[in-house]
Design brief:
The complex is a heterodimer of chains A (248) and B (481). Chain A has 248 residues and is an alpha/beta fold. Chain A has helices at residues 40-48, 72-78, 95-109, 117-131, 135-139, 148-162, 178-191, 230-239, 242-247, and strands at 2-11, 14-24, 29-33, 53-62, 65-66, 80-83, 90-94, 141-142, 166-170, 197-202, 215-220, 223-228. The radius of gyration of chain A is 18 Å and the shape is globular. Helices cover 23% and strands 34% of the residues of chain B. Chain B has 12 helices and 23 strands. In chain B, the strands form 3 sheets. In chain B, strands 5, 6, 8, 10, 11, 13, 15, 16, 18, 20 and 22 form an 11-stranded mixed β-sheet that branches. In chain B, helix 9 packs across helix 10 and helix 10 (441-452) packs across helix 12. Classes of the chains: A alpha/beta (248), B alpha/beta (481).
Chain lengths: 248, 481
Amino acid sequence: MLKIKNLHASVEDTKILKGLNLEVKNGEVHAIMGPNGSGKSTLASVIAGREDYDVTEGEINFQDKDLGELGPEERAREGIFLAFQYPVEIPGVSTTNFMKTAVNQIRESKGEKPLDAVAFLKLMKEKMKLVNIRQDLLSRSINDGFSGGEKKRNEIFQMAMLNPKLSILDETDSGLDIDALKIVSNGVNALKSNENATVVVTHYQRLLDYIVPDFVHVLMDGKIVKSGDKNLALELEERGYDWIKSEN
Amino acid sequence: MSKDDKILKDFTSKEYEYGWSVDFEVDQAPNGLNEDIIRLISKKKDEPKWLLDWRLEAFEIFNKMEKPNWANLKIPEIDLQSISYYSAPKKKKELKSMDEVDPELIKTFEKLGISLQEQKRLSGVAVDAVIDSVSIGTTFKDKLSELGIIFCSFSEAVKEHPELVRKYLGTVIPSKDNYFASLNSAVFSDGSFCYIPKGVRCPMELSTYFRINASNTGQFERTLIIADDSSYVSYLEGCTAPMRDENQLHAAVVEIYAGNNAEVKYSTVQNWYPGDKNGKGGIYNFVTKRGICAGDNSKISWTQVETGSAITWKYPSCILKGNNSIGEFYSVAVTNNYQQADTGTKMIHIGKNTKSKIISKGISAGHSQNSYRGQVKVMNRASNSRNFSQCDSLLLGNKCGAHTFPYIDIDNKSSMVEHEATTSKIGEDQIFYCLQRGMDEENAIALIVNGYAKDVLKQLPMEFSVEAQKLLSLTLEGSVG
């Protein structure tokens, strides 16, 4: 599904990714771990197509399509979803309205008719159950005054609504207490299928107790320096990143 | 070109949608402003002597006045002698009903999405349509008159209800009020008149639609709304003009009177031609709007969505004379390209326990300048009065300006005034968030801007609100940063 080859990316002339390779297949869950500043969030943003980042070398293929020329909205319509580390506030715009605009624009881009109010409401009700989110939260200005847990749950709700092929969860565990973490993870797991894939970007092993990865990659200094299965995450937790640094 | 600049450019480059003009025969006065022209206008309209005298007196006052220059606007010299002060679609005979209106005119309004045909009464809005200087017809008259409501053109009111016109004309905005109000008092050609009798709740929205069509003319309409004790009316005003290279002057006056327990809601969607991308052409919009809450427990609420005009100079205000009376002002003012707006309100608290609320949302894009100017004045005997003001500015791009000029003048110790102000830019983060969910930039900006203006837009009647949202998106199409 996703093939990243020799990816180099920089922001304002600072090189952050320096030759990263990654392949994600249908039905897989990959975890990207690494210390602060290793380039994890940059990787997430670059896949999503954020324009502040310049891809200087290498390529990203998604379902055999080169993403290089596609804007963020086109990538989203291809089925790439980014759950933000810091979900953005938009005063006066409810999550419901936000999602209605998004869902219908994606449909429009595929030549489908927009959902009418009834069909949209039905879809919302269904997905709300999945991530255990309350209606009143969806009627409020998106992320405005939300708690950390509410913001992350709202991200997963949006993911459920848009039903992406590839979901990238950028530090979704940051700022969550254990209950919120469980709810968010349950949502992610419920959405998993053989047709889609998940990339979990995280600092800590904790999240991986709930979202169990098939592969764990360690990102350091802009490159993946070690890959393994879920046991690698446990080992990292125990021995710290310095262990890998010393190995390299 | 950076990403921001590109979005900005695309979003601001939309063409004005109402820029066409229609050919119909007009009866137009020669250019120039003098006593003879005023006499001519008055004669054309077959006015009584008292009104002509009132006009001439206003003209005398006007001649002694100077054009105001305190606003944060660069106003080019306006040559008042090069304008025609009267232009009317030629009528073949007196119209008995809407059926006799020139089909070309009906078509004009249909093109604007405004139905003047009574059979389309489903829309539930009574419309008075004013082209250039004169009203061409008012819908739903019969139905309204059953309730004793008078809704007609100003000229008709002068003929049919002179006692009402004479009693209220100029009482809220005297002809000496300001330069543009004086000019209007001297040369106004038509407008709408509305009277709601005691205890009557007007069952439908009343609406006036203004269209400038002829070139080289000014539009000077005058609206007078009288809400007698315990009555209610919601009034809408819309306006558009053709695209022309030269600037056209619009100087209107709106007066509102509210008796005891009466309530008037006045909503405007102003979409005069704003000029082209380089600032050529466009309407100069100098408008005086004021309401008086004369009676106890009365309420006047102004809601405006200002998207058009090259220059907007406009401060819809409330005089809160009755005890417990309430004044409200909700405004969204959008400027793009080289537009300039200096707009806001005045809340004058005279009665006891009076309350006012000001919510102003300015949005500036392109090279435009957008100013909020507002005054809150609490007089000595206005005990326990309250005001809350919130003035927010949103900037799109880095070539535009947003300014806030609040004047607060309190002469009563038991009163309380609050003022909040914010200035923000549409964030790249916000746009990226929307894009990542599959929206394109235009929709993203429209969503963010409409969210920002929501507190004001929700005050508008339903149909109008939808129109206003579309208009906001269109006006800003092509702009962010």
